[in-house]
Design goal:
Strand order of the largest sheet: 3-2-1-4-5
Number of domains: 2
Mean pLDDT: 95
Distance between the termini: 23 Å
Shape: globular
CATH architecture of the largest domain: Up-down Bundle
Number of helices: 8
Helix content: 40-55%
Largest sheet: 5 strands, mixed
Radius of gyration: 16 Å
Oligomer: single chain
CATH class of the largest domain: Mainly Alpha
Order of helices and strands: EHEEHEEHHHHHH
Length: 210
């Protein structure tokens, strides 16, 4: 399988997940803002949306959207326990968190805050929304080790990547103590560190664009 990625973007999440799960992926870098891969190939010819992450399966078919790719990869290594089995209540809780991260944090806040195309006049309001939404996560993590309680999962990986972007929008995670402590723990995991190094990133500067 091939994972098309831009360093530090949300595609970092499936990259981390693959390393946690022991799933073998070929990493294909997409040049930011150019819709071309590092080899010069037309990325939009493969994925017309032009967005990363994009996962090309061994049979040539593709999957897009971060939350979908995370679930697919985790399902390839069920013994790793990175996502509950399909049909279980806990699977729907995982999907609930993935949707919250994708809609309320990623596209609902960070995309607006990080892209110049959105007017400066809306950004203070959106930053307030982000603080409120992360405070909800902070309260949850004050009573739980991970988003799914005792079990580290795909939802933690996606949330961790989006939390890296907080520094670029002027949000100090230390104001959210449970979330900050959780973020530090996840960032120290070997699979996370390996993925960061591979993309030429470090823990403090792991992103900047969604």
């Amino acid at each position: 399988m091939k994972l098309f990625y831009i360093p530090g973007s949300c595609s970092l999440a499936p990259h981390i997940l693959a390393r946690e799960a022991g799933v073998d992926l070929a990493l294909i870098r997409v040049e930011r803002g150019q819709s071309r891969t590092e080899s010069g190939a037309d990325f939009k010819a493969l994925n017309p949306s032009g967005y990363v992450p994009f996962l090309q399966l061994e049979d040539g078919r593709g999957l897009s959207e971060c939350a979908v790719i995370l679930q697919y990869l985790a399902d390839q290594a069920p013994t790793k326990g990175l996502i509950p089995p399909a049909g279980h209540h806990e699977r729907y809780l995982a999907q609930q968190w993935l949707n919250y991260i994708a809609a309320e944090l990623h596209t609902g806040c960070y995309t607006i805050l990080l892209r110049p195309a959105y007017g400066a006049e809306v950004k203070p309001f959106v930053l307030g929304l982000l603080q409120t939404r992360l405070a909800y996560v902070d309260r949850h993590l004050s009573d739980h080790d991970f988003l799914l309680g005792p079990n580290y999962s795909v939802a933690d990986i996606y949330l961790w990547v989006t939390c890296n972007w907080a520094q670029y929008v002027g949000l100090d995670l230390t104001s959210l103590p449970a979330l900050h402590a959780w973020h530090q723990r996840i960032g120290a995991r070997p699979a996370v560190q390996t993925a960061l190094r591979t993309e030429g990133l470090n823990f403090k500067a792991a992103a900047g664009r969604t």
